[in-house]
Structure formats: C-alpha cells, structure tokens
Amino acid sequence: MKYYQMNGCGNAFAILDGRGEKLRLSAEAVRRIAKSANADQVVSLENSMRGDIFMRIWNNTGSEVAACGNVSRCVGWIMMRERNRDTIKIETEAGLLIATRHGNGDTMISVDMGSPLLKWEEIPLAERMDTRGIDVKIGPIDAPYLQLPGAVNMGNPHCVFFVDELDAVDVVGIGPLIEGHMMFPEKANVGFAQVLGRDCIRLRVWERDAGLTKACGTGACAAVVAGVRKGLLNRSCTVFVDGGDLHIDWREKDDHVIMTGPIELERQAEISAPASAPVFR
Ligand SMILES: N[C@H](CCC[C@H](N)C(=O)O)C(=O)O
C-alpha cells in the first residue's frame, strides 16, 4: 500500500492508503508507526460513500480522534493530485470537510472546517459555563495569564488562553494539567495565544494525547474563534505557529471556519500492509 510522510507547518503525519486493504490498526500499531515515523498523528485512508475519501485519525499515543485540521489539508492535497481536481470532499468522524487549492501543483491548501461548536455541552465541559471565558483552576498556579480561557469545539475540544508574553509560558508544564482537567470530560487541546494585532496572533498548542506540536490546525481555528468572541481579534487572522503560519477566516456569511496553509510531502513509499506493528526505516 501507499505510505506518505507529510507535514502541515511542521505538524507531522504518517498517512497509510488503506483503500483496497482490510487495514485495521490497533492502538499499539499506531504507536509503533508514529514512533518510527516521528509523527504527531497517524491516518489511514478508506473508501467513502459520502465523500471522495474517508480519513481515520489517531494521535501518536493511540487514541482515535475525529478531527485534525493540518492532516485534512495534507489528505486533500493527496486526493487532488490523484484525481487532478481543485476541490476534494473528505469524510471524517466529525463530518464532511471540503479541501481546495488554487491550481495544479499548488501546495497552499485550504480546508473548510465547518462551524465551531460553542455551547458548554458541545465542547464538552463538565458543567454549564459561559464558553467565552471559563473558570478552570489548576491548584496553586493562579498566574494572572491563566484566567478565563475560551472553550471551542472544532470537531475536537479546545481550551485557549490569551497571554501577554508567550515565551514566558511553561506550555509543557501547564498544558498537561489543563488537558486532563476534570472540567473536560473528553480532555482538551490547550492553546496559548499572544495577540500581536487584531489580525495576527502567535500560538503554541499542547495537543490532547500528542503533546506540544509545531502546529495545530484545529487549535489555530479555535484560537481565532475564541479571540473574536473575546473582542480581541478580527474574523480574518494570521496565526504564527512554531512550524510556520496558517491563515484563518471565520466567515460571517455561513459561520464556517476556513483554514489555509502549506503542506509538505517529505516521503512517499510502497509498504506491505502493517498487520500489527510495522517499523518504517
Ligand atoms: N490532538 C488532537 C488531534 C490533532 C489536532 C491537530 N494536529 C490539528 O492539526 O488539528 C485531538 O486529540 O483533538
């Protein structure tokens, strides 16, 4: 089967084209693939009745997840090249996504991530709360910048803090405390955003079940939505992440969030179907 090693702004992926195979990856196989590929997420491509492709996504710790913005852009690019089309419909557990490019050979790919879910029970949170600024305490650490983060679901749960100085934030120390906080029954991706202007932010994300990554697509979408709801940002924003930059547009006309950014194909290979736990050299 075809194997693609790709990244979106440094968010690293191992993508297996399982169409035509009975590919069923165990959590252990996912962890082994992710380790050997040094990937944040692992994806298997499957046939779809509703779209051009079905994308099954796992974090590198083995948990299956419904949404991943950056890999949606990579899979969109694979299918556009295969079908020689500028628009591709991707089916995921979170729903249908539309990926587009501006022309053949283009590696700037946009994905329509649909509408953000903003009700407390849709994030989900453990109790009723105003999701524009939630009350999540982490023990003795009551740093001033850890007040009232925004909560947004982009097909997956996000908690976004707005901080004055991102380089002063201990993302690796604080991220896991919020990720597993009892306020989030399904855990959460934890974003730390610094506003540089009403149309640009810098963002780092401690990802649920994957840790600190160089970029998080749904995290960038969630940060802009949370910033607009706090009155800090315009609906069209550039998000500077460690691995590059993404452009987010939370469209007024249909409430959809459009994410645009680069993809990179690092390696493509033919491999034998990984029944259990293959190791890629
Ligand atoms: N860790 C995330 C999934 C990957 C999201 C990220 N890589 C993106 O580009 O959106 C979660 O468990 O919800």
Account of the protein in words:
The chain has 281 residues and is an alpha+beta fold. It folds into 2 domains: 2-113 and 263-280, Diaminopimelate Epimerase, Chain A, domain 1, CATH 3.10.310; 137-255, Diaminopimelate Epimerase, Chain A, domain 1 (Roll), CATH 3.10.310.10. The chain has 4 helices and 17 strands. The protein has helices spanning 27-37, 69-83, 171-179, 217-229; strands at residues 2-8, 11-17, 41-46, 53-59, 64-65, 87-92, 95-101, 108-112, 150-153, 157-162, 189-197, 200-207, 211-213, 236-241, 244-250, 257-262, 264-270. A hairpin with a 6-residue loop joins β7 (95-101) and β8.
Characteristic terms for this protein:
single chain, about 280 residues, alpha+beta, Diaminopimelate Epimerase, Chain A, domain 1, 2 domains, 17-stranded mixed sheet, globular, disordered C terminus, binds 2,6-diaminopimelic acid
